[in-house]
Amino acid sequence: MKNFISNYKKLCSEYYDLDKPTAPKDALNYYYKESLKAGGLVLEPMCGTGRFLIPLLEKGINIHGVDASSEMLKLCEGKCKNKNLSPTLYFESLTNLKLSNKYNYMFIPSGSFGLLTSEDDAKESLRQLFNYLSDQGAIDVEVERPYLTFEVGAKTESYVTRSDGTKIKLIVIKEYNFLSNVETLDCTYENIINNKIICTEKEVMKIKHYSENDFRELASSIGFKEVKLCKPYNKNEDVNLFRCIK
């Protein structure tokens, strides 16, 4: 399968899965409770490797997932198979969805919506999701707030270790455009076996940050009748959670 996006290739997806193997408990509990309240079908757009989707499936939530990265979905499917779970997963871009159902509730956690840095893509993705929401359905979206200050050219290095002791090293150089509120991460992934770099993978990842007014305007322009800022669990001052009601 070919990715719909240039990000989240093999090493990147593997690094992400090892670095973030489980969802934060407070976030997971929130989305579990909201899924129960909504009843019926739930959708996690941009579900990635399944760190939210899989535990919700295990708790009995009737949840489907969609992602534009074949590598991320491959890891999600593998973990589900190991747990004898049979998820409904769609390999699709949010800008061109072809789903089989409508959903009472959707959620996009962890700032993933910001990966849609083009205003047209962000608007079309929300429009597509709006169309697959049931009447009175809701979608929760977490977005990162704009930076007030930023260290230009900041460089970080980090490692994750596989079960066999081999490692993936991640080198990131960050930039930020204060006019567009888009953060750019120049990422280099190194596959390290026996202390030798076997191969590298380069990706440039961009993340759109939203002010409260900017996201309200975006969601309202789609047709959501109510867009409200929520603080159900998140004490992270860098992130806002919005509830958009059809």
Question: Could you write a compact summary of the structure shown?
Answer:
This protein has six helices and eleven strands. The protein is an alpha/beta fold and 246 residues long.
Shape: globular
Q: Helical percent range?
A: 25-40%
The total of helices stands at 6
Low-pLDDT segments, ≥5 res: 1-5
- What can be said about the biggest beta sheet? 7 strands, mixed
Q: How much is the radius of gyration in Å?
A: 18 Å
Secondary-structure class: alpha/beta
Distance between the termini: 33 Å
Helices and strands, in order, run as: HHEHEHEEHEEEEEHEE
Task: Work out the number of β strands.
Answer: 11
Assembly classification: single chain
Portion in strands? 25-35%
Average pLDDT, rounded to a whole number, is 93
Q: Strand sequence of the main sheet, in spatial order?
A: 3-2-1-4-5-11-10
Structural description of this entry:
There is one protein chain. The protein has 246 residues and is α/β, with parallel strands linked by helices. It contains 6 helices and 11 strands. It has helices spanning 10-19, 25-38, 53-58, 70-82, 119-131, 212-222; strands spanning 42-45, 63-67, 88-91, 103-108, 133-144, 155-161, 167-177, 182-193, 196-208, 226-230, 239-245. The strands form 2 sheets. The chain has a 7-stranded mixed β-sheet with strand order 3-2-1-4-5-11-10, with helices on both faces. The protein has a 4-stranded antiparallel β-sheet with strand order 6-7-8-9, with helices on one face. Mean pLDDT is 93; it is low at 1-5.
